[in-house]
Amino acid sequence: MFEGSKRSSELREAADRFAEGTLKPIVDQVYAFEDAHKAYERSMSGRAKGKVVISV
């Protein structure tokens, strides 16, 4: 699940920091699109130690 900011200034700042390399997301696990149900289960389990990513 992605939770975005409602403020465009915050989104702009995050995008700038990501481009500069100073914002580094922590990825728990990457799932293939076909395994989206597993990604959802992992995300909802409360055991993920970072972002759960679905590769498209």
Descriptive notes:
The protein has 56 residues and is α+β, with helices and mostly antiparallel strands. It has a domain of 32 residues. Helix content is 41%, strand content 20%. It has two helices and two strands, in the order H-E-H-E. A two-stranded parallel ribbon has the order 1-2. The two termini are 15 Å apart. The relative contact order is 0.19. This is Alcohol dehydrogenase.
Record the SSE blueprint.
Elements: H1 8-20, E1 27-32, H2 36-45, E2 51-55
Parallel strand pairs: 1-2
The tally of beta strands, per DSSP, is 2
Q: In one word, what is the shape?
A: elongated
Q: From N to C, what is the helix and strand string? A: HEHE
How does the major sheet shape up? 2 strands, parallel
Widest sheet: strand order? 1-2
Helix content: 40-55%
Average pLDDT confidence is: 90
Q: Segments where pLDDT lies below 50 for 5+ residues?
A: none
Structural class: alpha+beta
Total helical elements:
2
Gap from first CA to last CA: 15 Å
Radius of gyration: 13 Å
Give the percentage of residues in beta strands: 15-25%
Protein name: Alcohol dehydrogenase
Organism: Leucosporidium creatinivorum
Pfam families: ADH_zinc_N_2
